[in-house]
Structure prediction request, 521 residues.
Amino acid sequence: MKPIPEKPSPPKTESISKHSGGICYLVGAGPGDPGLLTLRGRECLERADVVIYDYLSNAEFLNFAPARAEKIYAGKTAGAHALTQEETNTLLVKHTREGKRVVRLKGGDPFLFGRGGEEAGELSAAGLRFEIVPGVTSAIGGLAYAGIPVTHRASNAVLTIFTGHEEPGKQASGLDYKSIASAPGTKVMLMGVERLAAITGELSAAGMSSTTPVALVRWATTGRHQTLVGTLGTIAALALEQQFKAPAVAVFGDVVSLRETLNWYESRPLFGRRIAVTRTRQQSGGLVASLRELGADAYEIPTIRIEPPKDKAAIIEAMLGVRAYDWLVFTSPNGVEAFFNAFFAAHSDARELGGARIAVIGNGTAKKVREYRYDVDLIPEEFVAESLLKAFKKLNVENLRMLLPRAAGAREMLALELENLGAIVDDVPVYETVPETEDVAGGIRRFRKEGADMITFTSASTAAHFMALGLTLPSGLKKASIGPVTSREMVSLGLTPDVEAEQHDIPGLVAAIRAFYEGEK
Ligand code: SAH
Prediction:
C-alpha cells in the first residue's frame, strides 16, 4: 500500500520560456460565446504566463490559463479605459521581453478594428516574436447569431465593413459616407451606436434609401444577446427609445429580412433567461452547458471546492481492507471520484477492489462509476437515500460489510438505517467541501452587478455556502432545487424553491427549469 498523496503542489514556474525568449500571441476571443474561441487560441491560453484581456473578450476564457498565470485587465469600455493603448503596448513589450509567453486576448478578430495591427507593430519594432490567432468577428459571426447572413446569392455579393467610431462631419474623418452609401450590397458598422442618429443622417443624405432594412445586435452571441430591427429612417429613434446601447453591430441591407426564417439562436426555449449556477468549480460545467444549449445566459457562481479530508486515517484504513467489503455505496459523483483517487493511490492493480457490489444514488453517480470501468449493481428508482434503503430492504443485507464513502460532515441517516437492517457499515469521509474564495471567471461580480432571473442549487452545501457569500438577492429571483434534501436546506435559509426537479440529477433539473419557463409563456 502506498501512502495517500497530498494535493499536488502547483507547478513551478520553470515553464516560463526563458531560453527560447518570450512570445506574444494576439488571440481573437470571438464575439463572446465561449464555443467560438479557436482551438489554437485555447492552446495558447493553456500555456500562458501572462494574459492581458479586454472588456469584450469573454472572461471565462481565463479559466483555460494556468492558475499561476498573471491576468491583467486592459479595459476599454467606451470612455472608461482601464489602461491606455500606450500602457497596453508597453505591458505587452515588457512581459514578452522578460521571456514570457504572453496572450493578448482581444474581442472578435484581433485585426478588425481591434488595434491588433498597432500592437503587433509595437512588438515588431521592439524586435520581439509574436503570432496572430484570428478570431470570429462580431461583424460576421455576431450577425449570424441574429439569423443574418452578411451575403446571400439571391441578394448581394458585396460586403462593406466600416467603423462608426469617427465623428461624422469631422474634417479628419477618413470615412466617406457617400461611397459607403452608394456601394452595393450589405454594410456592417462596428462601434458608433451612440452616434446612430448622426450616422444614419449622413447615410441618408448620401443617398441610401430610408426604407433600407437595418438591424442592431448587441452583446451578440452572449447570453445578453439582443436584436433591434428597423429601417434607416427609424432605427436611431428606436434605439434611443429602447436604450439600446453599445456594444452593438449595425447591419444595413436586404439580408436583414432573411432573419425572419433564419433566426435560430433567439428562438431557443431558454433564450434571454439569465441563470446563475451555484456549484463547485469542478462540477458546474455540465449544468451550465445544458442550460446554454437551450439558450439561457447561464453563468457560474463558484461556492464550494472539493478537497481531500483533513483526517485521512479512516480512508487509509478502508483502502487497506477494501477487498473485504460486500457493497460499496456511493451517494454522489464527488464521492466516487474521491474514493477512486484514494483507491488508486493505495493500489496499482484494479483487481485489489475485490468482488464488492456497487450501489449508487442518481444517474450522475452511476455515470461517474462507469467512467472508472466498473458497473453498477443497484440504482434505486428515485434518487434519494430513502429509495436506496427500500431497495436494500428487499435484499438481505444482514452481516454484509458496506463502505459508504461520502463528504465529511454529511448526514448519517443512511449509515444508521443500513445498520438497522443488520449491515456492518463503515461510513468514511473521503472528501470535504470548503468555501470557494476565488472568483476567477467573475461570476460573483456579475451576480452583484446584473443579478439573475434564476439561481440553481444542486446540493444543500452549495445553498449554505452561497448564503455565506452574503450577496444581495435581486427582487423576483427564482430559485431552483435539485431535490427535496436541497429544498429543505434552502427553505431553512430563506430560499424557498420555485422549481424542484422531479428527477434528482442534472438532466432532471434542466428539464424542470425548461418546464417552468415554458409554463410561464
Ligand atoms: N475586433 C472586434 C471589433 C472591435 S471594435 C471584432 O472583430 O468583433 C469594438 C466593436 O465591435 C464594438 O463597439 C461593437 O460594435 C463590436 N462588437 C464586438 N463584440 C460584439 C458583440 N459581442 N456584440 C455586438 N457587437 C460587438
